User: Fold this.
Amino acid sequence: MRLAVCSSKGGVGKTSTAANLAAVLGSRAAGGRGRVLAVDADPQDSLGRAFGVVAKGRDDSLAGLLEDPEADARAAVRCEVAPGVDLLPAHTSLEAVGVALAAQGGLLTGIRRVLRPLLDDYDHVVLDTHGDLGNLTLSAVAAADAVLTVFTSDPGSALGAARVSAFVEQHRRFENTSAQLVGVACSLWDREGRAAREVVGALEGTGLPLLATRIPLSRRVPSSTLAKRPVVLSAPTSPVALAYTALTDEVLASYSERVPS
Ligand SMILES: Nc1ncnc2c1ncn2[C@@H]1O[C@H](COP(=O)(O)OP(=O)(O)O)[C@@H](O)[C@H]1O
Ligand SMILES: [Mg+2]
Assistant:
């Protein structure tokens, strides 16, 4: 599976979801042959930070690989940032590199091109994106065969999920990607809140692949970022970690149902 985690805005829990999914998939692969590549396609480099990884410079990151087609992708990959997980970090220059490459027509296929020599080494790729549906996100979706979107109790959230679905459909029609939307997941779930129930209600019956697992609000998630270890590794038996594990299983099940092998 090559999964891009996308949303039309920031702060919805994408990076936390991408980091925990990668960690769950990696922990299952650890010791075995299968491995996971986590790719930070957000210039804010938060996925890297979730594992305590920061690129030393542009050349050491996805930005450098996008800029220089001759560069050795393997050299920029950080190995074993968590059990079974390797990581390709972003760098703040990624935004400027993306703009320059888009002007030359090379951004759409850029991330797909960068990842191609690496794919044989991994069972799964998890790409984190910036909170928008801009050109860098499209490049990540073009490299993916599956998309997961995340929403919160915020009233605009249901609309955001519909936007991501329309975005994926549009770019499938343009043949920019073969990716399918495999899940719409609720994060920062406040079980007491009316707003959360209303958003879920608005999404039910839309035909979008709404996942049953809700990721609860938990102080453990922000503290896991400080600890540089996703919560499924730092507090594996906590309710939020169990939810991320269940979400991973749902995403895998939806993937095998929706994406032709
Ligand atoms: N389940 C959760 N409970 C509490 N805080 C969370 C949860 N998930 C994410 N957060 C916090 O919310 C903020 C935004 O989450 P993040 O994963 O970075 O979202 P995005 O990548 O969509 O911007 C971060 O400070 C993160 O630590
Ligand atoms: Mg993020």
User: Anything to note?
Assistant: Residues 109 and 190 are 38 Å apart (CA to CA). The chain has one domain: 2-258. Residues 2-258 form a domain with the Rossmann fold fold (CATH 3.40.50.300).
